[in-house]
Design a protein that fits this description.
2 copies of one chain form a homodimer.
Chain A: H1 3-6, E1 42-46, H2 56-60, H3 71-84, E2 87-94, E3 99-110, H4 113-116, E4 118-127, H5 136-150, E5 155-160, H6 165-170, E6 181-186
Chain lengths: 196, 196
């Protein structure tokens, strides 16, 4: 891949190579990986600006309110993320129709604790619900989880609804006893209608 | 304040002025704010590199394992945060002995959802436990929470132990029914001994 092609991605696609899938083989059956996702028409790669036209925001709207995001808004936020660093938005593409059918985001955070370590967070996981039965949820979450491991993060955390606990448990996430609460405060309502 | 002084802070100290404390007056009694913290010797300000020598890491070690962080490690991570942006590490100083006695961190995240909004997280809250009874926990958490509001974040979230739920409820945070779980996976052990 030429560097000019690499420049089109939110992060270096080379980072998605040789992830430690063997550590998760108990959880994935039949065994698939981001590099061998079980169907020849599935492609897992970093987000590109062009994904604005490939249904990325429409996919996110299955998860929560997205609002009316113009291409200019999208590009501005893409470059905010790329400039800041630490944003690993990863997508699944159906290459037959060039549509984004799954996505998740790894965000890394600099810490002073734990020897100035790196912490990871999982955000905005969504899979088009017409593609059930292909383990795409596991595939997209484990891809970014194994990327966090590769980047040297000491832990990765997520917030989720009660109904999703069994799913995340099945791929190695835990509720730590006495320390598994997520709390929040909401400020001004977003312009769109249903917050998450 | 000259711009050269401003350059010494992790973020612009002007941001901590005129926060919306009136919205929290039900929770703070007697009423104090970051600009009027109740004692003339208390100062709330952004982190500085010099805080390495003022007990900032020793304070963090009351919270979790910090490890053996050299001044060079600390400066490197400080500049990583400053360059990335979105890191608002805020401290309470006892100006009588120039020691850091409280700290909390606001981290902001760029999102595509909710009209390309900004989300906030609360991290690494700690107050020296010899300074009890001065509402310093409320003071340091609300300072960064009101900063998140001022920055236009649509929500601010935190992960906490069961024992801290009443404290955070008392200052406006909620466990949303059916959606208040924090899960995690740990990777290689950090160099230091007790993770958090």
């Amino acid at each position: 891949m030429s560097s000019s092609e690499g420049d089109n991605y939110l992060f270096d696609p080379e980072l998605l190579k040789n992830l430690d899938w063997n550590s998760m083989n108990y959880a994935v059956s039949p065994f698939i990986t981001n590099e061998d996702p079980g169907e020849s028409w599935l492609l897992i790669r970093p987000l590109k600006i062009e994904d604005y036209d490939k249904g990325y925001l429409q996919l996110l709207s299955q998860l929560t309110s997205v609002g009316n995001v113009s291409r200019s808004d999208f590009e501005k936020q893409y470059w905010n993320m790329k400039k800041a660093g630490g944003y690993y938005v990863t997508v699944i593409v159906d290459t037959r129709n060039n549509q984004i059918i799954g996505a998740s985001t790894l965000i890394t955070e600099f810490k002073f604790i734990h020897n100035c370590s790196l912490r990871a967070r999982l955000e905005d996981v969504v899979v088009n619900n017409t593609y059930r039965g292909k383990q795409l949820g596991k595939l997209i979450v484990l891809t970014v989880s194994l990327l966090a491991k590769k980047l040297g993060c000491y832990k990765m955390s997520l917030d989720c609804k009660d109904s999703l606990i069994p799913f995340y448990k099945s791929i190695g996430y835990k509720c730590e006893p006495g320390n598994a609460n997520s709390m929040m405060v909401r400020y001004d309502a977003p312009k769109a209608d249903s917050p998450s």
